[in-house]
Write a structure and sequence with these properties.
Layout lengths: L3 E4 L2 H6 L7 E6 L6 E6 L13 E5 L8 E6 L6 E6 L8 E5 L23 E4 L33 H16 L11 H20 L1 H5 L8 H10 L11 E8 L12 E3 L4 E4 L7 E2 L4 H9 L3 E4 L3 E3 L6 E2 L6 E5 L5 E5 L10 E6 L16 E10 L9 E2 L4 E8 L9 E2 L2 E4 L4 E4 L3 E4 L2 E6 L1 E2 L4 E2 L42 E2 L26 E2 L1 E5 L4 E4 L12 E6 L5 E5 L14 E7 L12 E5 L5 E5 L13 H12 L8 H8 L5 E10 L4 E9 L7 H11 L8 E6 L1 E13 L5 H14 L21 E2 L1 H8 L4 E11 L12 E2 L5 E4 L11 E8 L2
Length: 835
C-alpha cells in the first residue's frame, strides 16, 4: 500500500467482490525458510499463476531473490507455496504480483487479471521469527515546528550618534525641555543637523576614508578591497515561489483542451484589500494594484491550466483513516488525468482539520510541492486504470526521493464530536496548474544609458627641455560608470525546469566570501546590436569579450564598470547602451503562504492566483560591517596542507563530512598522506564522496606527496545490560522505552538514541556511565547492571570494570543493532521482574 491507514477496509471490500482476489498475508516456513506461504483471500485464479509473476525485491546483504516454483495443497486451496532460490537477511522484503506482460516496466506495471492492485503486494521478513528488541510498530507523528531565532540588529549608525550627542547637550542646557516627538520643531532641527553632520564628516576625509577596509563608507570600495584578498562579496538573491493558477469553475468541465494558458512574464501581486483577484493589464486597476501592493512576482514559464487539475482527490483503495507517510514518493489520484505530464509540479495540501473537519483548522504547514517523474492512467493493456472494486478511474503518480514528503499527510480521518462519529474524506488534496515565480519584475522598457564620454583633450606640451620642441602627452580613457535607475537589481541562480520541486524554494543561499551561482539579471545591448554580459570580475578574463561588472552601492544603486582594453574590453567613445534588467531582490521577497492573491491577465478563464507555499531563497546583500569583519578572516584561510592536521581541516570544509583525520605513511617509494573520513548524519562515505574529497585535497597537497582518501574504520561494540523492572510495570513497556532512548530515538521531536551514529565521533572514547544513567532514569527501572561492554574485534577484553573503551584516532565506534551486520555492534537487553 502507498498509504499508512489506521483502519483497513479494503480486505472486506475485496472479499465481497465477485471475481476479484488479493493477498491476505504471508508466512515464512520456519523449517524451510526458502518456502513462502502466500495466503490469498479466495481460491479463484490461483491455478493460473506462474512463478515468474511473483517478484521479490529488497534486501541489503542478500538481494535478487527469485521465485523458482509454485505449489498449492488440497487442504489449503487458497495458499500458494512459493519456493525461492535462497533465504534473505534481516532487512525488509516486498513480494509483488506482476503480470508477465509488464516486463518490469514501472510505468505500466500491474497485477494479473482478477487480482486487486491494492492487495497485490505485501512486505515481509525472512527473520520474522527471530527475537527483536521491543515493539516493531512504527510511531507516526509530526515533529514540532522549528522556532526561528529573532532578528536582532546590533549595528549602530553615525546619524544616531550625532543625534544622541545633540539631544544630550540640549537636555543639559534646557532641563525643562523633554519633548521627543519627531514632529516637534526642536527634534526636527536636531535630526536635520545630525543628517548634515553625518554627510559633512564623510566629505571631509572621503579619499582617506575609502582607502582602508576598516574606514571605507562606500560598499563599492569595500567590495574592491575584499577582492584584493580573494573575498567575494555577496549581493544577495531574489526569492522564488510556486504559484497555483485558479480557474473559473463551470458546469461543463472538459479536459481535452486547456482552459487557460498563462504566459511567462505574467505579474502576480501580494494581497491588497478591495482589489479584484484578476485585473486586466494596462488598466487603472492594474496601475493601482502596482502602487498599493507590497510585493510583485513574475511567472518564469508558460503553463497550460486545466479545470480538472485545480483540485485532485486522493484515492485510498476503500480504506479509511489514511495518510501519506513521511518519505512517501507516490500516490493515487481519483480520475483519468490524461493531461497530467511528467515534469508537472503538484502541491499536496491539507485543506481540512483532521479532528474537526473545518477548513480553518487545517495545518497550513502540511503543504509540499513535488515534481512528477511518473504518471500512469492506463494499465499494461492500454485500458483505463480503474479500481476493480469500486470501478473508479484512477491515476498513479510518483516523484523523486528528493521531493519525498517530510511529514505525514493526512488523507482521510474519523473524528468524534461528542454525539456522532464522522468519517472525513479529502482531508488533503493535490493542486495542479502550478508554475514557478520569481520575486521582482522585468522593467517595462529598457533603460537607455548615457553615451560613453569622449576623452579629455591632450594637454599642451612645454617645449623647454625637449629637443623636438614638444613634450610627451598621455591621454587617459574617460571614466564611464553609469548607474541603473531601477533598484534593487535582481540576483538569481538559473532555474532548472527538471530539478526537484523542493529545490526551487530551498536553494543554496549566497555564501559571503564564496563564488555563487547567483548572477545579476541584466543584459546590455549597444547601438551596434552587440550583447554585453555581466561577469564577477574583469581580472583573469582569458578571452576578450563584451563583459562588464555590476557593483552595488550602500543605497542599493547598481553601477556598471567596464574594462580598459587591458582587463576587459573598453566601450568606444559615443557608444550608447540599452539596459534590460529585473528589479526585486533580498529577503523582502520571502512572503508567507497565501500572501499573493492578484494576477494581471486578460484571460477570462483565470479566476485568480495563490501561493500555497511561502516564498524562499531571498537573501539580503551582504552588509558593509560583515564585509569588514569577514574579509580579513578569509584572507587568513590557509590554502595549503602541510601537516597531518591540515589535511583533516581542509577535508572538513565539506558539509557532508563530520570529522576527518590525516596521517603520513611511507609506502616504500614515497610518502603518502592517508585521509580518513567520517560522514555527517544522513551521509555515506561512498565512492562519490571519496572522489570529491580526493579532487579537492589535491589542490592543497604538498609537492612530492601522494594522497589517498578512505572511510573511517568501523569498530563494533557489544553491550549487554541487565535491567530489573518494578513489579508495577510491564516489562514490554519498559523495554520499548529503553529502545527509544538507546536505539531508535524519539521520532516525534527528532531526538536521536544514545547509540545512534550521530553521537559517535572519530577517535572518541566511549563511556558506559551515560548509558547506565539514561537507563536508570526510565520509569519502571529499579536497577541496571552492565554484563558486557567490549569491542567485537577484542572479545577477550571487557571494559565493564574500567567504564570506557578507547578508540584509535582513525576508528569510529558503532552500535548499529542491524541483525544483518552484527559486526557493526549490537545491544542486548535482559529483563527481570515486572509483569
Amino acid at each position: 500500500m502507498i498509504y499508512f491507514c489506521a483502519e483497513k477496509v479494503r480486505r472486506a471490500r475485496v472479499l465481497g467482490h465477485a471475481g476479484l482476489n488479493g493477498i491476505d498475508f504471508l508466512e515464512v516456513d520456519p523449517d524451510t525458510p526458502t518456502q513462502l506461504h502466500v495466503v490469498f483471500l479466495k481460491c479463484e485464479r490461483l491455478a493460473q499463476l506462474q512463478a515468474a509473476e511473483f517478484v521479490i525485491t529488497g534486501g541489503e546483504t542478500v538481494s535478487g531473490i527469485v521465485a523458482n516454483s509454485l505449489a498449492i495443497t488440497p487442504d489449503a486451496p487458497n495458499r500458494v507455496i512459493v519456493t525461492v532460490n535462497e533465504t534473505g537477511d534481516f532487512s525488509g522484503y516486498t513480494l509483488t504480483l506482476h503480470h508477465l506482460a509488464t516486463c518490469g516496466d514501472p510505468h505500466i506495471e500491474g497485477p494479473p487479471h482478477g487480482f486487486d492492485p491494492a492487495l497485490a503486494r505485501i512486505d515481509f521478513s525472512f527473520k520474522a521469527g527471530c527475537p527483536t528488541i521491543g515493539d516493531c510498530k512504527v510511531d507516526n507523528c509530526c515533529p514540532s515546528p522549528a522556532l526561528s531565532a529573532p532578528d536582532i540588529n546590533y549595528l549602530a549608525k553615525d546619524f544616531q550618534g550625532f543625534r544622541q550627542v545633540m539631544l544630550d547637550r540640549m537636555w543639559t542646557l534646557m532641563p525643562d525641555w523633554t519633548e521627543q516627538h519627531a514632529a516637534d520643531p526642536g527634534i526636527a532641527v536636531v535630526e536635520a543637523l545630525a543628517y548634515v553632520a553625518d554627510h559633512l564628516s564623510y566629505r571631509q576625509d572621503a579619499v582617506g576614508t575609502e582607502a582602508y577596509l576598516g574606514t571605507a563608507r562606500s560598499r563599492v570600495s569595500l567590495r574592491r578591497h575584499a577582492r584584493l584578498v580573494d573575498y567575494t562579496v555577496s549581493d544577495g538573491s531574489c526569492a522564488h515561489v510556486w504559484l497555483q493558477i485558479q480557474l473559473v469553475q463551470t458546469d461543463a468541465v472538459t479536459d481535452d483542451q486547456p482552459a487557460a494558458i498563462v504566459r511567462a512574464g505574467t505579474q502576480v501581486y501580494s494581497r491588497v484589500a478591495g482589489a479584484l483577484p484578476r485585473v486586466a493589464p494596462d488598466t487603472r486597476e492594474a496601475d493601482a494594484l502596482a502602487r498599493s501592493a507590497s510585493s510583485v512576482f513574475t511567472t518564469l514559464a508558460d503553463v497550460q491550466c486545466f479545470s480538472t487539475h485545480d483540485t485532485m482527490q486522493f484515492h485510498t483503495w476503500s480504506d479509511a483513516d489514511c495518510c501519506l507517510p513521511a518519505g512517501a514518493t507516490e500516490a493515487t489520484l481519483v480520475g483519468t488525468l490524461k493531461n497530467l505530464q511528467v515534469g508537472d509540479v503538484l502541491v499536496l495540501e491539507e485543506v481540512l482539520g483532521p479532528n474537526t473537519g473545518q477548513p480553518e483548522d487545517a495545518d497550513q504547514t502540511h503543504r509540499w510541492a513535488v515534481r512528477l517523474t511518473a504518471v500512469r492512467s492506463t494499465d499494461y493493456l492500454g485500458d483505463t486504470l480503474i479500481d476493480p472494486v469500486d470501478n473508479i478511474a484512477i491515476t498513479h503518480i510518483a516523484w523523486k526521493a528528493s521531493d519525498a514528503l517530510p511529514f505525514p499527510l493526512c488523507v482521510s480521518a474519523t473524528f468524534d464530536n461528542g454525539t456522532t462519529t464522522t468519517e472525513l474524506e479529502n482531508v488533503s488534496v493535490a493542486r495542479g496548474n502550478v508554475v514557478a515565480g520569481r520575486h521582482g519584475m522585468r522593467i517595462a522598457q529598457p533603460q537607455l544609458l548615457d553615451p560613453v564620454p569622449a576623452a579629455p583633450p591632450a594637454p599642451v606640451g612645454d617645449p623647454a627641455g625637449y629637443c623636438c620642441g614638444t613634450s610627451a602627452t598621455i591621454t587617459t580613457r574617460p571614466r564611464y560608470y553609469p548607474a541603473l535607475a531601477g533598484q534593487p537589481l535582481s540576483f538569481a541562480a538559473p532555474v532548472d525546469p527538471s530539478a526537484p520541486a523542493s529545490a526551487l524554494t530551498a536553494p543554496a543561499p549566497p555564501v559571503p566570501g564564496v563564488d555563487t551561482q547567483a548572477v545579476p539579471l541584466i543584459s546590455l545591448v549597444d547601438d551596434q546590436n552587440e550583447i554585453w554580459t555581466p561577469v564577477a570580475m574583469l581580472l583573469g578574463q582569458t578571452e576578450p569579450g563584451n563583459n562588464f561588472v555590476v557593483e552595488i552601492e550602500r543605497d542599493g544603486t547598481a553601477f556598471l564598470r567596464f574594462g580598459d582594453d587591458t582587463l576587459g574590453v573598453a566601450p568606444l567613445e559615443g557608444t550608447r547602451f540599452s539596459a534590460d534588467y529585473w528589479i526585486g531582490n533580498g529577503s523582502a521577497g520571502n512572503v508567507g503562504r497565501d500572501a499573493l492573491a492578484h494576477i494581471v491577465s486578460n484571460d477570462a478563464a483565470v479566476q485568480g492566483v495563490r501561493n500555497p507555499l511561502p516564498a524562499a531563497g531571498g537573501v539580503d546583500a551582504e552588509s558593509m560591517e560583515h564585509i569588514r569583519q569577514a574579509a580579513p578572516v578569509a584572507f587568513n584561510t590557509q590554502m595549503r596542507a602541510v601537516t597531518e592536521d591540515d589535511y583533516g581541516e581542509v577535508a572538513l570544509r565539506d558539509s557532508r563530512i563530520k570529522a576527518a583525520r590525516g596521517r603520513f605513511r611511507w609506502t616504500g617509494s614515497w610518502r603518502t598522506t592517508f585521509v580518513t573520513l567520517e560522514p555527517s548524519a544522513g551521509q555515506v562515505a561512498d565512492t562519490t564522496m571519496i572522489d570529491d574529497t580526493l579532487t579537492r585535497l589535491d589542490l592543497f597537497r604538498m609537492a612530492g606527496t601522494d594522497l589517498e582518501v578512505e572511510a573511517a574504520v568501523i569498530v563494533g561494540l557489544k553491550i549487554v545490560l541487565h535491567v530489573c523492572v518494578d513489579s508495577q510495570h510491564f516489562r514490554t513497556d519498559v523495554r520499548q522505552a529503553l529502545t527509544r532512548i538507546l536505539v531508535s530515538g524519539d521520532v516525534c521531536d527528532g531526538t536521536p538514541g544514545l547509540l545512534a551514529p550521530v553521537n559517535f565521533s572519530l577517535g572518541e572514547t566511549v563511556y558506559l556511565s551515560p548509558l547506565l544513567v539514561a537507563v536508570q532514569a526510565v520509569e519502571g527501572v529499579t536497577s541496571v547492571n552492565a554484563l558486557a561492554f567490549q569491542r567485537l574485534d577484542d572479545p577477550l577484553s571487557d571494559a565493564v570494570a574500567r567504564g570506557y573503551i578507547t578508540m584509535n584516532r582513525l576508528e569510529l565506534a558503532s552500535v548499529a543493532n542491524d541483525p544483518s551486520r552484527l559486526d557493526r555492534g549490537y545491544l542486548t537487553l535482559t529483563m527481570d521482574g515486572g509483569k
